[in-house]
Sequence to fold (176 residues):
Amino acid sequence: MTDALPPELISESDIRKRVSELAAQISSDYADAGEVVLIGVLKGSFIFLADLSRNLTIPRTIEFIAVSSYGAGSKSGAVRLVMDVRGNIEGRHVLIVEDIVDTGHTLNYLIGMLESHNPASIRTCTLLHKAERAEVEVTIDYVGFNIGDEWVVGYGLDYAEQNRTLPYIGNVQPVD
Ligand code: IMP
Fold:
């Protein structure tokens, strides 16, 4: 990769607009739920979760979970839990907040793992979805944008830890 900024795929203002639409939908769907526990999947979801949670109008608490990543680049690997949620989610309404769903293995694993904590409900939200890359069937309740088979960075997403804080979503050509 060069030092040049990645070309823009989704602009900052389009992200802002879509995040507020998602938050409005989620706020309406959970209006009678009492409270929702947002579980952000580290590291990629940290910016999305920050913006989404601040746009919600319903009571919410924040948790984080970490799973093994693809490694330094873009190659797929086995899913492994690195950090579990700290709070008790038993009997509570859980919304998993992902940056991106690619093959679906990570989200599928997380749903199964969190179900074992006996929450009242589990729903899923992702900013980005690469539907054509799906390898497992997994229910995604809230999707920000559908994208094609390309590697994207920015707004929390990285390639080899680079470009996470780019304000827009751009694409890069992985070298591995
Ligand atoms: P999955 O298990 O294949 O669905 O992959 C999910 C995880 O892979 C995401 O949480 C990201 O960490 C990573 N990932 C997949 N595609 C991209 C991408 O285009 N950019 C950055 N990270 C990605």
